[in-house]
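Notes, Module 5: Reading structure tokens.

Key idea: the token line is not a picture. It is a compressed description, and you learn to read it the same way you learned to read a sequence, by spotting repeated patterns. We will look at two proteins. The first is printed below with its tokens.
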Amino acid sequence: MKKLFVPKINRARLRSLLTVAALLALNVLPAFAQSTTFNSTDLKTGISNSLAVIMMFGFVLGISAVIYGGFAIRRGDVDQGKMSIIGGAIIAAAPAAVFAFYKIFGLDTSSAVGVGNF
């Protein structure tokens, strides 16, 4: 007769697993209850602040690309230097251009585009 493989259940591990599952299940209920107090202004502020951080990193990256292009031209690699300067200028100016388009078309009052509350 074949012996069936039955894994041994570690009682301590099972108890801790059930405790974690119960805590997760009980902590999910207040998250559902908070949906009635959802405020879109808070969401727009969070998105705006996140975009501001991304825009700052992009600006620094664009400026460093322009500087790298200057050094490449100095080294003698003129084509690579020109492309790096043009790319860096586009990267650094992109957030300002997008914000200008939002202002021009009147979308700035109800949008999350901006520089945040810094």
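Here is the second protein, with the sequence above and the tokens below, as before.
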Amino acid sequence: MPSEQQRLLHVSIDDPLAERFAGQYLRIMYVLHYTSGMTEIAITDARGRLASIIDTARQEPVYLTRRNRRVAAIIDTDQLNRLLADADELADIQAVDAAWEDTERLGETPIPWEDVKRDLGLS
């Protein structure tokens, strides 16, 4: 089963929206690729080295392991915030794509935004 990040990153290269949001997409792909072989430390070893681990995490993610299995990661807060914002943006793009696909599948005609605003008294 794909992870949430992998599911969010399923964007076709031919998709016109992919080009529009290529910066976010590429940043997420870079981080996922770049962090795949990064620093790992056992939780038992990390207990006494928290300050140095945080210093390292400002430059690259540090994975905490238990029984040689990654169980957590420490990353820079700015990087985390960018990743979360980018993942949210990509989720919105996928929701719009799904709505358009539903519209086409059901043979519906979209209502122009100007008409919606007028009907609601917003224009």
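Summary for the second protein:
- Strands lie at 39-42, 62-66, 69-74.
- The chain has one domain: 4-119.
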